[in-house]
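Sequence in, structure out.
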Amino acid sequence: DQSFGGWTNSGVSEIDMADGAWSQWHNGTWGEWQAAPVVVQYDWDLTPSITKITPAQMSSARTTVLTILGNFSSFSSAVHNCTASMRFVSPSGLFRECQKLVVEPTSASCQLVRGKPFPVNEQQKMFPRLQLCTAAGEEVVAHPEPTCCSGSPYTGRVDIALRIEGTVPAGGSLA
C-alpha cells in the first residue's frame, strides 16, 4: 500500500489532481482514492489561545508593556532548544519583537520597544504571534481568538500606530 496525505490505495503508479479530487493511474485506468479512517482527539489544554491583549492599540513611538491573557497552563518559556517569543507580524511580513517575555499559566507580559512605524495601511492589522514551548521542547503558537484585540474589521489584530488623527486646536497661527 502507498499513502498520500491520509489517503491510501495499493499499487499506485502515478498521482494526478483532477476536478478537485485526488485520482490514481493504475493498470491503464483511472480510479479514486479511498479515505483511510482518521481519529482526531482534541485536547483544549494542548491548545494555547490568546483571549485578550492590553492595550490593543499602542504607539510605535513609545515603549509599551503589554499584558496577554489566555490559556498557557501547559506551556513554558524555555525548554531544551525551545525559547518562547512574542512578536507582532504585519500582512507584508514585517514584525516587531516583544522583549522580556514572562509566561504565567493564564497570562504573559512583555515589553514592546519603540521603533519605526509600520506602513499606514498595515498599522491596524498587526497579528499577535506568541510562541510557547511544550514540556518536550516542541514549539507551539498561541493564536488569538477573534474577540481578543480589536473590533471589526480588524478582529484578532493589534494596532501599532504612529498616525496623526487630529490636532487641537484645529486652527491657529504659527507666528
